[in-house]
Input
Amino acid sequence: MKKTLIIILSVSVVIICALVYFISRIPEMEPVRVSKRISFPHTPDELFFKSEVWGMTYDHKIIALSVNGDKEIESDPEKDYIFNGVNTLFYKVKQDSLILYTPSKASIPAHFDSNITIQQIELDNVSMMNLLKEKEYLKQGLTVFE
Output
């Protein structure tokens, strides 16, 4: 009986130590943030694409189009174009306009403080995949933001 108790306690201690070790080895799940500046040839205005990916498997993503250059996304749909659940956007700069090709349009923010005209073109999944295939978007003069 005493021998069985010692074995159970020893196994329990080993299991607890293994759990502590493996839990301490899990990397920090900090969000990954990316920012990209978009310049326009005929105006000093700039816009910024920002993305943030988070989650244990980094499967949650948000993309924002903002006048603010900070990397952090404020998620304020009154000031920024917010694309939830969108992994890839294609865009084209044309004079003082930005043309976005997206699988789902963002709401137009009421207080987007820029002189740049934003045009959103919604594409179905097949069209989005065709642009990615063999980098077709480059042949059409588009740039990708992921």
Observations:
- The first strand starts at residue 32 and ends at 40.
- The chain is about 25% helix and 35% strand.
- The chain has one domain: 32-145.
- Residues 32-145 form one domain.
